[in-house]
Design goal:
Layout: E1 4-8, H1 13-17, H2 19-27, E2 32-38, H3 48-61, E3 66-72, H4 81-94, E4 98-102, H5 109-125, E5 141-145, E6 155-158, H6 163-171, H7 174-177, H8 190-207, E7 213-217
Parallel strand pairs: 1-2, 1-4, 2-3, 4-5
Antiparallel strand pairs: 5-7, 6-7
Helix pairs in contact: 3-6, 4-5
This protein binds zinc ion.
Length: 235
Amino acid sequence: MLDLLAIAAHPDDVEQTCGGTLLRMAEAGYRTGIVDLTAGDMGTRGSPEIRVAESAAAAKILKVAHRENLHFPDARLENSMAGRMTLAQRLRELRPRTVILPYWEGRHPDHYRTAELGYEACFLAGLRKLDQYTEPHRPYKIIYSSLYAHVIPSFVVDVTQHFERRMQSLLAYRSQYGEVSDGAALFPDEPEIRERLSATARFYGNLIGVKYGEPFVVKEIMRVDDVVALQVRSL
Ligand SMILES: [Zn+2]
């Protein structure tokens, strides 16, 4: 049973986009988890085995209670019936209340397919007759991680206290970001990674008056019960 589950296309996607939020929620006492759909087998560096091992190390840093990899085909991910059913089964077993998906538009086809596949799997998971062995479960809320989407977020989570640890979780992918000569022109080194990540997190943090933030989009309107207690200063 999880409170919060992030579903991502590739190992290290979560670390780049919403790892601070997962860590913050874990530290608040929630049970968090990550399901990566592919193991990055088309990646220039490393191998699926190495990346899955690195993702387990990153999961520890982010204090997630559960992480698994479904080993769907990388770089040619399809929103297939088999894929939706497999993910729906996992949702019925993990039973998250809230699910984080990547934003539904983007440059990499795997990312927007994950958004679509994830949304449809959440729907399927709620159907009683999907199978007779597991109880139906439809997540209550889906939020979309929009860090790379260049859209106005619905809300931003303050991850100022969690930013450095999130950085460590990304650097746990030694095969991708370590000192390797293989594909060096394609892959940024550690100082460059640090600068990029902090510049983006500063930008979103600025929007809510804190140092570092992570942006999300929701399809529903956000409800407010107390307008006197609203945060983020106007003047
Ligand atoms: Zn990715």
